[in-house]
Write a structure and sequence with these properties.
- The protein is mostly helical and 141 residues long.
- The protein has six helices and four strands.
- It has a two-stranded antiparallel sheet with strand order 1-2. A two-stranded antiparallel ribbon has the order 3-4.
- α4 packs across α6.
């Protein structure tokens, strides 16, 4: 049985992230050995947004609220990585990953590398650089 056929059977011919049944393809969750246990079946929309963060539509990823509870490690890893990318800390706090799955999720694409690409802005919208001096003028509760 091919990897694609295994994934179609496992997922009941639906995207394992959002549940769509159109434009399905195999996506290897890196680092991967190419087996079905390290791959997921995704729709074209999910695949495009996974591969190109500039096309990210945060509203599409509300589906992770359900898919993060999958029993498949590869699905859990992609849910974790996408939740990190969209910075949904509430769902990340709820998500439990076994130590080996967490290590896999952090191995590639799950780190805070995207945070370096997002500029930090001050209250006036000016980009802050490393070494800038910032003064806090109000205590937060």
């Amino acid at each position: 049985m091919s990897v694609e056929q295994e994934l179609l059977t496992r997922s009941e011919s639906k995207c394992e992230l959002c549940g769509s049944s159109t434009d399905l393809s195999v996506y290897e969750v890196a680092p991967s050995d190419g087996t079905a246990s390290q791959s997921i079946l995704v729709c074209g929309t999910c695949k495009t947004q996974i591969e190109d963060p500039s096309k990210m539509e945060e509203a599409h990823w509300h589906c992770l609220n359900d898919s993060m509870w999958s029993t498949e490690s590869a699905v859990q890893v992609m849910a974790y990585r996408m939740l990190k990318r969209i910075k949904n800390q509430d769902l990340l706090d709820m998500l439990y990953l076994e130590e080996d799955v967490k290590a896999w999720a952090d191995a590639e694409g799950g780190s805070d590398e995207d945070d370096d690409k997002t500029p930090t802005l001050d209250s006036n919208g000016a980009v802050l650089q490393a070494g800038d001096t910032v003064t806090i003028i109000k205590d937060l509760e």
